[in-house]
Amino acid sequence: MRSSAWAVCAVVLIVAAFGFMTLLCRLPSSGRHSQGGAAADRHFPLTAVVAHGATAGVYDRAQPPMSEDATVR
Known about the structure:
The mean pLDDT is 75. The chain contains two helices and no strands. 58% of the residues lie in helices and 0% in strands.
């Protein structure tokens, strides 16, 4: 049980790192590899963002509420 918790923690950290790298790639910059001042969200995958939000909303609604007497071990 404890090893699976550590594995899930590692996966969450890796996914968070990928999300942060995606955010950094989308920020506007004037560096050597910039695309001539083009807006960062010009080619933003709107369908992927909407699907991500919808999936998160469905997952959040599917979770049963915790009872007040539930204990975490």
